[in-house]
Amino acid sequence: MQEIQKIAEDMEKARYDLQFKYIVGILEAKIKIINEQLSEKSGREVIRTVLSRMKEPESIHAKLERKGYDRDFATAQEKLNDLMGVRIICLFLDDVYKVANMLKKQSDIKVIKMKDYIERSKKNGYMSLHLIVEVPIGISEQPEVKRVEIQIRTVAMDFWSVLDYQLIYKKDVSGAEEVSKELKGYSEEIAALDRKMLKLRNKIEKM
Amino acid sequence: MQEIQKIAEDMEKARYDLQFKYIVGILEAKIKIINEQLSEKSGREVIRTVLSRMKEPESIHAKLERKGYDRDFATAQEKLNDLMGVRIICLFLDDVYKVANMLKKQSDIKVIKMKDYIERSKKNGYMSLHLIVEVPIGISEQPEVKRVEIQIRTVAMDFWSVLDYQLIYKKDVSGAEEVSKELKGYSEEIAALDRKMLKLRNKIEKM
Amino acid sequence: MQEIQKIAEDMEKARYDLQFKYIVGILEAKIKIINEQLSEKSGREVIRTVLSRMKEPESIHAKLERKGYDRDFATAQEKLNDLMGVRIICLFLDDVYKVANMLKKQSDIKVIKMKDYIERSKKNGYMSLHLIVEVPIGISEQPEVKRVEIQIRTVAMDFWSVLDYQLIYKKDVSGAEEVSKELKGYSEEIAALDRKMLKLRNKIEKM
Amino acid sequence: MQEIQKIAEDMEKARYDLQFKYIVGILEAKIKIINEQLSEKSGREVIRTVLSRMKEPESIHAKLERKGYDRDFATAQEKLNDLMGVRIICLFLDDVYKVANMLKKQSDIKVIKMKDYIERSKKNGYMSLHLIVEVPIGISEQPEVKRVEIQIRTVAMDFWSVLDYQLIYKKDVSGAEEVSKELKGYSEEIAALDRKMLKLRNKIEKM
User: How far is the C-alpha of C67 from the C-alpha of C15, rounded, in Å?
Assistant: First the structure.
């Protein structure tokens, strides 16, 4: 409890919320342009929603604990990649990769890691394309870089993840295992649906 | 061509865009509050996206023609309910009806018509709950009322409708019929998915 | 202290922040339209900034005390007109009255009081046009009405008021009286400037 | 006329509007942070308004002509610093310089020129602090840099400039010279007012 409090205080001292707003402002400006470029090229809307969140002291603490790290904000900044998070929700499966490619092409941010949980979903069925990017922050004299986790997924995958998220808090409840299995099944159904809709879209576009 | 031009001019004369912005401003303020009230009650996000659009002169003209009405803006204002449109996209199936109920409870707008294309989808597979509401507009001395079509649907239904929309422009192309049939099939699949996800959500919430 | 706490709790119970957001949403939509209508007519920008604020429990309590009322939220809602406040900052003196006239013409809000502190400034030099309006709130079954204080002033008057506001917290400090007198003098200077700039603008427009 | 048309087309080809939106997005994120930092330090609001504009083909053409340059978009990009413009309006005179200093400290933008039209106003009375900055644009593979003119001024100076702007279009009209002289006089009055208000603010803050 005291450790969480300490993390919260250190975040405030560092004015982490200002840093977050700045970084997210840059990325959202970038994503807007990417969306306009891709939408113009394809003649249809590509990105439906962009969301962003700053990780709360409680879940920073929980993650440090789970990973066996020291439970303070300095360690969090060094070890965790998802203190700042941006989610991009696309309509179609191929759009996810198009957006990722555009992000990789930007000369002023650096993609330092990419994990494709669509190609190979997590054990529980979670699907998403994860990019860890470094964004320069220039709000003081020393140039610095902040890491951001960007999750790119389809609306269907995003819908699935809402239930997955609700399950986190009920892990040890009786019946949880059965529900998890059922949810995993829907993940495969959703993946199949995304592929079929994409195929049909391609068919329509070629007509 | 001249008729479309005339409709565009009459819309400009009536400053229809200003009226649209005002009406949509009111409705968006309302929907925001409804979302916060419902989200607070249910402990999860209820509305994911709100979109709005003003019908373009071209499609006003096309609709008047299709319905056999006189093709001018006065007739459009009298006969068509969807010159102004707002779309509310919810995560779960039951949220669609919760949002509709909240809209019906508002004392200053009036729901004059409701069509449930979820209960009974359109022939092509289209699903959505449609409300026609009357919103008072007080930007001049005479009180007046504007009709708005509010479409409420799930993210899954909305995803489906993107392809449906693309098909409109390819109706007479060869292969369109087959594609339409395939798309209709996915509509049923999506409806089934929405029901299963809702059932599972209810199970999780009761755990 | 306990009284302030109680006011804060009652505001939260009534979800006063949601009511505020709704009411301000309506008014801002209205003011936007008014700005576009006036700007179109005059061929120049009319409103420069719109700000809004909800009165904090501390200052609600202080105002109730100063006026000799019971110090609770129910009394505040009944007696105080400025729990919700909107400020409209115009470029020129005549624009202030044009905006006020447009607000009076709106059929769905009601101006119940108007105080012209420009025609006759407050003793300390404060200038602004104050309207108390009633805005219908329809977020539940019972129609209801909320009062809002709308302050309309020029950029020059608004600039002046920043210093006036800083003085509030230093009323009893030595030197305050002299500073107040000096500030009052600037108020007259600003009023004269506004009149001269308006006169010159009219001259330019007639050229 | 044809030259203006050509400039408009070249801007469209280069998708200059997208570039503008991106650059302005970055700068606005930066200015927001600067405002929060300065406001926190001084305990009062520092920046009142931020505006931005992209120079129109007509006025690009007029400026190229006035300066004796070739009248095409390539030349404009090379020679003109104000194709993209951002205006920051502060409450007090010293805030103008505080904001400028913060902008100079940013490690990822470069101030390449600064002109102080407050210290020494233009002949017609125009006052403002002008910074030309270079902002990196990374929306494609090749890193690039865009120049932006940032004008920083007080609300009082900004008020003055509205009339100055209206005069531009009436330069050759009879009576213009007299009006110009009158306006120039008000510029000095405004400068004096800004200095007096600042002095009084400092007095209040020290009380």
Answer: 25
Architecture of the domain delimited by D2-156: 2-Layer Sandwich (3.30)
* CB spacing of A205 vs B48 below 8 angstroms: no
User: Is residue C128 a contact partner of residue C161, using CB atoms and an 8 Å limit?
Assistant: yes
Contact D25 A18 (CB under 8 A): no
Q: What span, in angstroms and rounded, lies between the C-alpha atoms of A142 and A80?
A: 22
Q: Which subunits count as partners of chain B given 3+ CB pairs below 8 Å?
A: A, C
For residues C134 and C81, what is the distance between their CA atoms, to the nearest angstrom?
Answer: 10
CA-CA distance, B92 to B197, in Å (whole number)? 8
DSSP state of C207: -
Please tell me which of the candidates B33, B136, B143 has its beta carbon nearest to residue C139.
Answer: B33
Q: Touching check for A205 and chain B: CB below 8 Å?
A: yes
Task: Give counts: helices (H), strands (E), chain A.
Answer: 7, 5
CATH topology of domain C2-158: Beta Polymerase; domain 2 (3.30.460)
Cβ neighbours for B55, distance < 8 A, ≥ 6 positions apart: B63, B80, B82, B83, B84, B85
What residues of A are in contact with residue D32 (Cβ under 8 Å)?
21-22, 25
In which residue are the tokens 């990722």 written? A100
According to DSSP, residue A43 is labeled T
pLDDT tens, position by position, for chain C (207 residues)?
Answer: 799 999 999 999 988 998 999 899 889 989 998 999 999 888 889 999 999 999 999 999 999 999 999 999 999 999 999 999 999 999 999 999 999 999 999 888 999 999 999 999 999 999 999 999 999 887 666 678 999 999 999 999 999 999 999 888 887 888 889 999 999 999 999 999 999 999 999 999 988
CATH of domain A2-206: 3.30.460.10
Q: What pLDDT band is residue D129 in, cutting at 50, 70 and 90?
A: very high
Q: Give residue limits of the domains in chain D.
A: 2-156
Residue A172 vs residue B95, higher pLDDT: B95
Using alpha carbons only, give the angle A22, A28, A34 rounded to the nearest 5 degrees: 145
Question: Is D151:D96 a contact under the CB 8 Å cutoff?
Answer: no
Question: In this structure, what is the dihedral angle of CA atoms D112, D118, D123, D125, given to the nearest 10 degrees?
Answer: 130
d(CA A161, CA A156): 9
Angle at B20 between CA B14 and CA B24, to 5 degrees: 160
Q: What is the per-residue pLDDT for D141?
A: 64
Angle at A143 between CA A139 and CA A146, to 5 degrees: 80
Q: Are C147 and C134 in contact (CB under 8 A)?
A: yes
Beta-carbon separation of C204 and D44 below 8 A: no
Residue D138 contacts by C-beta under 8 Å, 6 or more apart in sequence?
A30, A106, A107, A108, A109, D144
C-alpha span between D200 and D185 (Å, rounded): 23
CB C154 within 8 A of CB C96: yes
The Cα–Cα gap between D89 and D188 comes to 19
Q: Which residue out of A39, A46, A48, A168 would a mutagenesis test of the B interface target, given it has the greatest number of B Cβ atoms within 10 Å?
A: A48
Interface test with A, best of D18, D41, D104 (most A CBs within 10 A): D18
Number of other residues whose CB lies within 10 A of the CB of residue B123: 7
Mutate to test the interface with D, among A21, A33, A39 (most CBs of D within 10 A): A33
The count of C-alpha atoms lying within 13 angstroms of the C-alpha of D150, restricted to the half-sphere facing its C-beta, is 32
Beta carbons of C201 and D163 less than 8 angstroms apart: yes
- What the block records as the tokens of A71 is 């439970």
User: Would you call C44 and D166 a contact, using CB atoms and an 8 Å cutoff?
Assistant: yes
For C49, phi then psi, to 5°, come to -145, 145
Phi-psi region of B175 (alpha: psi -120 to 50; beta: other; left: phi over 0): left
